[in-house]
Amino acid sequence: MAGTRLDPIDRKILAELQADGRMTNVELAKRVGISAPPCLRRVRTLEESGYIRGYHADVDSRELGFEVQVFAMVGLNSQAEADLSAFEELCRCWSLVRECHMLNGEVDFILKCVAPDLSTFQSFLTEDLLKAENVASVKTSLVIRDAKDEPGVPFDVLEERISRNA
Amino acid sequence: MAGTRLDPIDRKILAELQADGRMTNVELAKRVGISAPPCLRRVRTLEESGYIRGYHADVDSRELGFEVQVFAMVGLNSQAEADLSAFEELCRCWSLVRECHMLNGEVDFILKCVAPDLSTFQSFLTEDLLKAENVASVKTSLVIRDAKDEPGVPFDVLEERISRNA
DNA sequence: TGATTTTTGAAATATTATTGCGCAATCTCC
DNA sequence: GGAGATTGCGCAATAATATTTCAAAAATCA
After folding, report:
1. Per-residue pLDDT for B101 more than 60?
2. Are residues A117 and A77 in the same domain?
3. In Å, how far are B47, B141, B163 from B41, measured between CA atoms?
4. N or C: which end of chain B has fewer CB within 10 A?
């Protein structure tokens, strides 16, 4: 079912649910122009086929006391697959690390981290990250402020691209 | 209402909704150990007070054809507030830019971008980003793979921290 | 074109969300 | 310490939504 192409209604559903993941199925159906039952079936299919990975409340971490956000560029000593995987597994265990992406180029990984305060981050940095097996170098940058933070799919680009190729 | 401290039930609600934003209120109430009506009232309060910014479906962008993910480190010529703001406003307009964070240190901004393919990204890079007013330098890194991608609050850290300070 | 497969939507049913309200616990201020 | 005010709970009733069922419409294909 993976290769199934999506029709315009499916894409509209994805766009709407990306914008508001708690929209009722009735409202969603109205917006995409079909009745509720087929709309719900489409949503289920999109979930089962992996187009929708899940739904998440967007919780304000600063309000909860996580005032510090940091990007860490990490270089490793060995880039053997086993060593890369080992580092990734470590990242999955560290709660303060919210994202871990492997990169091309000089740096091997970029991590997005959060912490309640600088000292908490510093102790994570010196006690965990820098002491971790195979870590050669870490460069960190504090986030001053967020101008845009909308992970997800740019559906306007997708639609434009589809209509061009149609 | 901003400074209102949250009780353990509120935090549990946030944690549950962060993990599954479409959970029914009945299920949520069951999990946090209160009945449905007060649970719903708490959720509404959390939404209105800004602890919950919204809900979003997590859509698989690769499945939709966005195969390329890139981090771009941007340096500007001028760091005057007006110039910083102007660049941020540009980023908000660019659909391919999903995140824009201002950093301390040598680099001024880090952008997370997506694109259907490399050539699309390249043309964005050369036609838009590099030609933009005040942009001095851009260094890009392609994402090879994601080891972890869980934006949000590490509630385990939060709870540990609260119990320690209790 | 006609048979086959898919998808739809009206209607019925099951669940869930929401409101109203009285009760109990906690606070507050004498 | 205690009366009144405040807060938060949960039961019960109602409104709305989700989900199933099924016959008809639409799309697909030989």
Report:
1. yes
2. yes
3. 10, 45, 26
4. C
pTM above 0.85, yes or no: yes
Q: What is the per-residue DSSP string for B46-80?
A: HHHTTSEEEEEEEE-TTTTT--EEEEEEEEES---
Name the 3-class secondary structure at A86.
helix
- Establish if A3 belongs to a structural domain: no
What's the pLDDT band for A5 if we cut at 50, 70, 90?
confident
Average pLDDT for A31-45: 98
Q: Round and report the angstrom distance from CA (A57) to C1' (C27).
A: 33
Minimal-distance CA residue of chain A relative to B43: A57
Per the model's pLDDT, the better-predicted residue between B55 and A1 turns out to be B55
Listed by number, the residues of chain A in 101-140 with a beta carbon closer than 8 Å to a beta carbon of chain B are 101-105, 107, 109-110, 112, 114, 116
B129: helix, coil or strand?
Answer: helix
- Looking at chain B, the whole-number percentage of residues with pLDDT higher than 70 is 97
For A43, residues 6+ apart whose C-beta sits below 8 A from its C-beta are: A13, A17, A25, A28, A52
Per-residue confidence band for B165, with pLDDT thresholds at 50, 70 and 90: confident
The CATH number of residue A108's host domain is: 3.30.70.920
Cβ-contact B71, B141 below 8 angstroms: yes
Quick check: B60 and A71 CB within 8 A? no
Q: Quick check: A37 CB within 7 A of strand C?
A: yes
Q: Which residue's CA is nearest to the C1' of nucleotide C17?
A: B25
pLDDT at A4: 60
| Whether residue A53 is found in the same domain as residue A73 | no
Based on the fold, state whether residues B75 and B52 are members of the same structural domain.
no
D16 closest protein residue (CA to C1'): A26
Show the domain range for B23: 8-57
Q: Are residues A102 and A129 in the same domain?
A: yes
- Asked whether residue A22 is assigned to any structural domain, the reply reads yes
Query: How far apart are the CA of A154 and the nearest CA of chain B, in angstroms?
Result: 6
Residue A2: pLDDT band with limits 50, 70, 90: very low
Domain-located, residue B104:
yes
CA of B41 to C1' of D3 (A): 29
